[in-house]
Design a protein that fits this description.
Elements lengths: L2 H6 L10 H8 L10 E5 L5 H10 L2 E6 L2 H13 L6 E5 L12 E6 L8 H8 L3 E14 L6 H10 L4 E2 H10 L2 E8 L3 H18 L7 H20 L3 E10 L3
Parallel strand pairs: 1-2, 1-4, 2-3, 4-5, 5-6
Antiparallel strand pairs: 5-8, 7-8
Length: 247
Amino acid sequence: MDYFFEIHKGIPREGPGDAHSTRKAWEMCTDLPEKPKILDIGCGPGMQSFDLLSISNGWIIGLDTHFPFLLDCRKKSILNQKFNSFYSINASMHHMPFAEYGFDVIWCEGAIYNMGFQKGLYTFHPLLKTGGYMAVTEISWIADNPPSEISNYWEKEYPGINTVEDNLKSVTSAGFELIGHFILPESSWFDNYYNPLFERIIALQNKYQDEPEFQSCAAETIQEIEMFQKYSKWYGYVFYIMRLIRN
């Protein structure tokens, strides 16, 4: 039993985000084709994918390693009559089966950390057409001098966490023109992510009360929620929107 996915099963999103922020980032991507080709890397259950479909008039490939998420996406595509606009690929961002220069837009909300921000930018770079856009969210330090409890926590959980300023330097060093960036609101952490996660844990407690591995996974998730409740002043998810201009 993979208790991580048991806890995450059926929740709307697999990371902080919201429809307003997705739209705000999308509106920074101008001069796109009438039907842009979009790759959503680490699409999860696809909430942002279908937000994009509703505003882009494009078609989307959603890529994820967890096949049940892709089944959720396919059900949504049928329910929303978008089955001709959404396609899914069960693959890793480390080994993506696409030709170079194939996409007008690459989207990645809450997933680039699996590779690391800078490495992700370099890895995704070849898949974009010249003049194409990339929009990613990345957990970032948003204030100086975080307390030791939260800095130690992230040093353990994600040593690659960086400041906004350093991430902006990574954008330009990877060959992109920065279009804009903004911090996601605190509500985007709770409304479709942390609150449903917590409710899911409560619902599963009796079922797995004698399973130490479940209890450990649940405790880690609750600790993550509590860390954000205490220290959201110092870190958050930041949307980075950039454009690729090849020489």
